[in-house]
């Protein structure tokens, strides 16, 4: 069996917010060709992990390597879909405007988008089922449509590593299944996908790998052997009873 290419290496990552420790001594090897579910309770540090890797926040200790380099040297090869509440939905931009933002990392200053860029954007919108919304202002869309717009932007960027922070919030089940199908196709092409996810009932079918996190790394590995009751219990602790009652596991 061929050795999997490592797209992300995290060594000894620790992050504080003021005096509060959010992540402690995290070590990860993230391999190409997989869809990773990043799983853990609220406050576990999942979004903080993403922002640390992406260089969006400072960290207190550790080393991070993305695609064999510093994040700033490979940023155009990385796509990030933030949580919905981090986006200004009143910004006067259309769906096409937002999707085409994925092409700008490949352009020089003041260089205009061309027909090839437009075609890539059209293809991304078609895959996400939003081609008919191309001229709609983003603030006029439903929650599920808004999520699809930002995933289309990530596809338009033709990145090698994708970070999606809770992409299924406010999304209907058919859209959710369409998105996960696209993510699996990207993984089959050798891309690396990381998804912060909360619905434990779909983890087995959605992700080839899981990262269980609760301020420290609980476990990482193949979903079939890592997403176990024992590891889930270590990650969620007392919240596990609530999850059972709500049907999330």
Mind explaining what this structure looks like?
- The relative contact order is 0.18.
- The chain is of the alpha/beta class.
- Helix 4 (115-127) crosses helix 5.
- The radius of gyration is 18 Å and the shape is globular.
- Strand 8 and strand 9 (217-222) form a beta hairpin.
- The protein has one domain (6-246): 3-Layer(aba) Sandwich (Rossmann fold), CATH 3.40.50.300.
- The protein contains ten helices and nine strands.
Write the layout of secondary structure elements.
Elements: E1 6-17, E2 20-31, E3 34-39, H1 46-53, E4 61-66, H2 71-74, E5 78-81, H3 95-100, H4 115-127, H5 143-157, E6 161-165, H6 173-188, E7 192-196, H7 203-206, E8 209-213, E9 217-222, H8 223-226, H9 229-236, H10 239-246
Parallel strand pairs: 3-7, 3-8, 5-6, 6-7
Antiparallel strand pairs: 1-2, 1-4, 8-9
Helix pairs in contact: 4-5
Short précis:
This protein is of the alpha/beta class and about 250 residues long. It has helices at about 45-55, 70-75, 95-100, 115-125, 145-155, 175-190, 205, 225, 230-235, 240-245; strands at about 5-15, 20-30, 35-40, 60-65, 80, 160-165, 190-195, 210-215, 215-220.
């Amino acid at each position: 069996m061929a050795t999997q290419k490592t797209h992300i290496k995290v060594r000894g990552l620790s992050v504080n917010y003021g005096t509060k420790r959010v992540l402690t001594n995290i070590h990860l090897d993230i391999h190409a060709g997989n869809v990773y579910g990043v799983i853990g309770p609220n406050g576990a540090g999942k979004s903080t992990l993403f922002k640390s890797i992406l260089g969006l926040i400072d960290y207190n200790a550790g080393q991070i390597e993305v695609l064999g380099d510093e994040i700033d040297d490979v940023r155009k090869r990385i796509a990030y879909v933030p949580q919905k509440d981090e986006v200004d939905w009143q910004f006067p931009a259309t769906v096409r405007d937002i999707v085409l933002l994925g092409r700008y990392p490949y352009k020089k200053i003041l260089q205009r988008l061309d027909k090839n860029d437009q075609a890539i954007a059209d293809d991304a919108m078609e895959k996400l089922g939003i081609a008919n919304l191309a001229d709609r202002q983003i603030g006029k869309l439903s929650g599920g449509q808004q999520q699809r717009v930002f995933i289309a932007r990530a596809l338009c960027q033709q990145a090698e590593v994708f970070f999606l922070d809770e992409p299924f919030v406010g999304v209907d089940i058919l859209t959710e299944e369409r998105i996960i199908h696209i993510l699996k196709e990207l993984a089959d092409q050798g891309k690396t996908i990381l998804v912060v996810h909360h619905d434990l009932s779909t983890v087995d079918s959605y992700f080839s790998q899981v990262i269980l996190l609760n301020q420290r790394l609980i476990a990482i590995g193949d979903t079939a052997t890592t997403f176990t009751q024992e590891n889930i219990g270590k990650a969620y602790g007392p919240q596990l009873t609530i999850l059972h009652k709500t049907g999330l596991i």
